[in-house]
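Why does residue order matter? Because the sequence determines the fold. Keep that principle in mind as you read this record.
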Amino acid sequence: MSSNREYSFTKPTRPSIRLLAGLGVEGDVHAGTTVKHRSRVAQDPTQPNLRQVHLMHQELFTEVAEHGFEVLPGDLGENITTTGLDLLALPVGAVLRIGPDAVVEVTGLRNPCAQIDRFQDGLLKQLVHQDATGTVVRKAGIMGVVTAGGEIQPGDSIAVELPPQPWTALDRV
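Structure:
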């Protein structure tokens, strides 16, 4: 669990965070009904905030460690680090029930930026690249909006509810 009141690339870990319906992570700089990421604010500050919560899978940290990178929870700015859940395979609209009360609806993929290479040179290529067919692969986690609030902490269960088919694959938001 990570959050930060100030703009910074990494977010300090916390013993728990509170999700607020329609806003995001309480006390996090990216919480709000409209976009808070600087690049998106510059484009149009009235856009809805589809990036209220950033989730990243712990397995990614193991994968990049095999290439010499050390990444810990919160280092890449995520709010929630998961284990054993294939986040990148979820469709748009999947619902994540986290802990006893919180609900997050998946909106899309995080679009990694150059700040990642400032954190650790070369890491960006591990998180976004083209596969053999030329398709861009983004591995830096997923984004969502909070539909029901609640306090969550490490170890809380996450139940996945898939939307009706046909599913829409995740794309960057």
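The first helix runs from residue 38 to 43.
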